[in-house]
Amino acid sequence: MSEVWLEIWSTVRSEFADIPDAGEATRIVLRLGMAVFLGGLLGYERERSGKAAGLRTHMLVALGAAIFVLVPLQGGMQVGDLSRVLQGVIAGIGFLGAGAIIKLGAEREIHGLTTSAGIWMTAAIGVAAGMGREATAVVSTLMALFVLAVLRRVEARIASKERNRVISPGPK
C-alpha cells in the first residue's frame, strides 16, 4: 500500500516541477504580478469612470495574456514561434472587446469603443509583462493612462464648446 502512495506522491511532485528553482519562481511571480498590477491600474481608471469593464476585468485580461505567452516560453518555445500564440490572443481579445461595443440603432450612437480599445491595450500590456518586457509594459500603461484620463478632459472641453456653439445663435 505504501508503494502506491509513494508513486502518487512522486507523480504529484513531478507534475508541479515546472518551476525548477527560486530564480524561475521569482521570474514567474514578477511577470504575472506586474501584469495584474498594470492591468489593475487601467481597470481602476475605467472603474472610476463608471464603465462596465473595470478593475477585475482588466486585471484578468492582463493576467490571461501574460500566462498565454509565459507558459510557452517556459516550455522552451522560441520567441519567433510565439507569433501563433500571439495571433490567437489578439483574435480572442478582439472578440471580447467586440462584446463591449453597443450600437444604439435609433440614435446611431456607438458606445464602448474606448472600453474595447482599453481591453485590447490591457492584453498587449499583459503580453509585454509575460514576455519579460516589464519596462515596456510600464511605459505603455502610463501612456494609456494619459490617453484615458488626461485626454478625456480635452474631449469634454471640446464637446462643451460644440454644445455651446450649437445652443447659442451667435452675433446678429
From TrEMBL:
Keyword Zinc-finger appears in the UniProt entry: no
Transmembrane region(s): 28-44, 56-73, 85-106, 113-131, 137-154
Domain MgtC/SapB/SrpB/YhiD N-terminal stretches: 32-156
Protein's UniProt keywords contain Amino-acid biosynthesis: no
Keywords tagged on the record: Cell inner membrane, Cell membrane, Membrane, Transmembrane, Transmembrane helix
Range of residues in the leader sequence: none
Topology of the protein relative to the lipid bilayer: Multi-pass membrane protein
InterPro entries: MgtC/SapB/SrpB/YhiD_fam, MgtC_SapB_SrpB_YhiD_N
Superkingdom in the source lineage: Bacteria
One GO CC annotation: plasma membrane
Localization terms from the record: Cell inner membrane; Cell membrane
Classification via Pfam families: MgtC
Family, similarity comment: Belongs to the MgtC/SapB family.
Name the record gives this protein: Protein MgtC
